[in-house]
Amino acid sequence: MKKLEQIVADFFNEDIKKISENTSQKDIEKWDSLNSLLLINEIEKEYNITISIDDIIEINNILDIKNILKKHNLEI
After folding, report:
1. Distances from the Cα of 69 to the Cαs of 19, 30, 46, 58, in angstroms?
2. Angle at 23 between CA 17 and CA 29, to 5 degrees
3. How is domain 2-71 classified at the CATH fold level?
4. Cβ neighbours of residue 38 under 8 Å, at least 6 residues apart?
5. What are the angstrom distances between the C-alpha of 51 and each of 14, 32, 34, 63, 64?
6. What pLDDT, on the 0 to 100 scale, is given for residue 39?
7. What are phi and psi of 29, to 5 degrees?
8. Structure-derived torsion over alpha carbons of residues 4, 11, 58, 21, reported in degrees to the nearest 10
């Protein structure tokens, strides 16, 4: 799903080629706890959903975000 990868790349000002399902906080220097919440906010706005605190706590990489989107019945 390139849309999510593009959101992440744009948010962190990274090359989309560096973003994959396995991309995590350790791969992106700017991906700290504050930016994690701001990224989730961007994703919520883009997909018009609300992500629960429990789900947010479980996010370790892009695949985790995709799985959350699937829980919201979004096409992945």
Report:
1. 17, 23, 11, 13
2. 90
3. 1.10.1200
4. 11
5. 24, 18, 16, 15, 12
6. 98
7. -55, -40
8. 40
Give the DSSP letter of residue 13.
T
Amino acid at 68: I
| 65 within 8 A of 71, measured Cβ to Cβ | no
Q: What pTM, to 2 d.p., does this model score?
A: 0.91
Q: Give me the tens of pLDDT residue by residue for the chain, a chain 76 residues long.
A: 589 999 999 999 999 999 999 999 999 999 999 999 999 999 999 999 999 999 999 999 999 999 999 999 997 6
pLDDT at 75 (0 to 100):
75
Domain boundaries, the chain: 2-71
Task: Compute how many other C-beta atoms are within 10 angstroms of the C-beta atom of residue 26.
Answer: 9
